[in-house]
Amino acid sequence: MKPDAGSNVDQFALNAGTDASTDLPLELEDFFQLLADEQTRYILYLLTERGGTVPISELEDRFDDEQAAIRLHHEKLPRLADYRLVDFDHEAGAVTPTRRCDELRTVLESVREFDGDADDFVAQIQR
After folding, report:
1. pLDDT, position 2
2. Looking at residue 85, what is its pLDDT?
3. On the CB side of 44, how many CA atoms lie within 13 Å of its CA?
4. Is 89 helix (H, G, I), strand (E, B) or coil?
5. Per the domain annotation, does 75 fall within a domain?
6. How far is residue 6's CA from residue 38's CA, in Å, rounded to a whole number?
7. Which CATH number does the domain housing residue 62 bear?
8. DSSP codes of every residue in 14-35
9. Each residue's pLDDT tens digit in the chain (127 positions)?
10. What pLDDT score does 76 carry?
11. In the chain, how many domains are there?
12. pLDDT attached to residue 114
């Protein structure tokens, strides 16, 4: 959960070399909550594997359910942007992993090993 601006929360910052004064802290609990959500987890897998800007339309194609597409635009990508894991340009229709996301690559690769359908998801997007 996000700490309030004035709270004195012990911050386990996974901000990996970024300027903490401009980034929301990514506490361990927050990171696990992100990983617990399948759609969010798969987005992170794809972005760290590709390592560049991905058109949002490619993500929408994978999440063909209309409700999933709405959550992608209005919940998942904005939340990842709040934690400075992605740069989400709604107008350009693109999402790009940030340095913070890239620095979590090793952790995401380890988690992906346990995630049975993840390889199929990433392979479909890359076609």
Report:
1. 44
2. 95
3. 33
4. strand
5. yes
6. 31
7. 1.10.10
8. --TTS-TTTS----HHHHHHHH
9. 444 443 333 333 343 333 333 456 788 899 999 999 999 999 999 898 888 999 999 888 877 688 988 999 999 999 999 999 999 998 999 999 999 999 899 999 988 888 876 666 666 555 5
10. 94
11. 1
12. 84
Taking alpha carbons only, the member of 96, 88, 116, 107 closest to residue 35 is 107
**pLDDT computed for residue 8 by the predictor:** 32
Burial 65-94 (b: 16+ CB within 10 A, else e): eeeebebbeeebbebbbebbbbbbeeeeeb
In a domain, 79, yes or no: yes
CA dist 72 and 60 (Å) reads 8
Q: Which residue has the tokens 């401009």?
A: 22
Sheet strands side by side (includes 86-89): 54-55, 94-97, 86-89
SS (H, E, C) 93-127: CEEEECHHHHHCHHHHHHHHCCCCCHHHHHHHHHC
Within a domain: residue 9? no
**Domain span at 45:** 28-126
Residue 76 resides in a domain: yes
Bridge partner list, 55: 94
